[in-house]
Design a protein that fits this description.
Number of domains: 1
Helix content: 25-40%
Shape: globular
Strand order of the largest sheet: 4-7-8-9-10-11
CATH class: Alpha Beta
CATH topology: tt1808, chain A
Order of helices and strands: EHEEHEEEEEHEEEHH
Largest sheet: 6 strands, mixed
Distance between the termini: 55 Å
CATH architecture: Alpha-Beta Complex
Length: 216
C-alpha cells in the first residue's frame, strides 16, 4: 500500500483504485481528502476507489436533491440533509459517500448531531447515487450493508428506485418508499428538463405544482 503522500488526485471523471487498504489507512485518507472538494471515497473490505466526479454528475445529484426538498416541504415532512456525508461501518468494513443523502422518517433523531456514528445513529432514509461508469465496486452492496432503506440510482437517462429487503439486498420498486406517489419516470422528466433549462428554478416551480396536484 502506498503512503498517503504518494497518492495522487484522479482527473475530473477519473477513478483511482487501490487494493489492500486497511481500515486505519482508509480513515487516514478520509481525513487527508477532506479538504479537497469534489473527491469521493468508496471502501469495500480492503478495496478503495477515489473518484473525481464531473460537473454533469454533481448537477444531476444536486437537482434530484432539490426535488426531495420540495417533496418534504409540500408534504409537511421532516428533513435532515446529509449531503455527501461519509457513511461507514467499521464492523462491516465498508464506507461510501452518497451524492446526496437525507434523513426523513428519522430526521428528528438526528437533531443536534454534528458527527455521524452509525453504531448508534440511524442511516439516512434515502441516498441518491449518480452512477459512476468507472466504478467497479458493488456500491449497492455497500449501501445494503449500511442498511440505507432506499437508494435512487441515476444511470444516464435512466432512474431506478431500490428498496432494501429484509435479507439485506435491494429490489427494484415502481414507487418511492419515502414518497409513495412518486415514480422514477416522474422525477426523470423534470431532471431532463432541468438539464436543458437556462433557469432551473422554472423547472423546480413546475415540479412544485405537480406535487400539489398529485400528493392526494
Amino acid at each position: 500500500m502506498s503512503s498517503i503522500a504518494s497518492i495522487g488526485q484522479p482527473p475530473p471523471g477519473g477513478c483511482l483504485r487501490l487494493s489492500g487498504v486497511d481500515w486505519r489507512m482508509y480513515s487516514r485518507l478520509l481525513r487527508a481528502f477532506a479538504e479537497r472538494p469534489g473527491i469521493r471515497l468508496t471502501y469495500d473490505r480492503g478495496e478503495l476507489e477515489i473518484m473525481s466526479p464531473l460537473l454533469e454528475h454533481d448537477d444531476s445529484g444536486r437537482f434530484l436533491g432539490v426535488l426531495v426538498f420540495v417533496l418534504t416541504e409540500e408534504l409537511d415532512m421532516p428533513l435532515k440533509h446529509g449531503g455527501s456525508t461519509t457513511l461507514r461501518r467499521r464492523l462491516k468494513r465498508r464506507g461510501i459517500e452518497a451524492d446526496e443523502c437525507f434523513w426523513i422518517a428519522n430526521a428528528r433523531r438526528m437533531s443536534g448531531k454534528r458527527r455521524l456514528d452509525l453504531r448508534t445513529d440511524p442511516p439516512p432514509d434515502l441516498a441518491i447515487e449518480v452512477d459512476v461508469t468507472n466504478s467497479s465496486l458493488d456500491r449497492l452492496g455497500i449501501y445494503g450493508a449500511i442498511k440505507v432503506p432506499e437508494v435512487w440510482r441515476l444511470t444516464g437517462k435512466s432512474l431506478t428506485f431500490y428498496i432494501l429487503g429484509p435479507d439485506g439486498s435491494y429490489v427494484i420498486s415502481p414507487i418511492s418508499r419515502a414518497f409513495p406517489f412518486v415514480k422514477p419516470a416522474d422525477l426523470l422528466g423534470f431532471l431532463l428538463q432541468a438539464r436543458k433549462a437556462g433557469d432551473e428554478m422554472v423547472v423546480v416551480r413546475k415540479f412544485r405544482v405537480w406535487v400539489r396536484r398529485n400528493k392526494g
